[in-house]
Design brief:
Length: 95
Amino acid sequence: MAVKKALSTDQLTRIAKALADPRRFDILRQIGAKNGIVSCSEIRDCQPVTPATLSHHLKELETAGLVTIVRRGKFADLILQRDILRAYLDQLEKI
């Protein structure tokens, strides 16, 4: 039986704010669809934004705890934190 993670009010707020942006929601959906590690360049190829804007969106998702960014020199890989997303959804169900 998995231990359910409890999120702080601050983290719940950061996640809600991050997901309120349609671009970030779409980026998170893209990462989740790959079901593993996704290179930042894969996301960049599907998003019609500048690299700086994409970096900003990824940082917001990372700050919310929804993704982990693993840096490899000038490249980066993205990992969806499904346990955090599940904990967020679990807490929303309690409303």
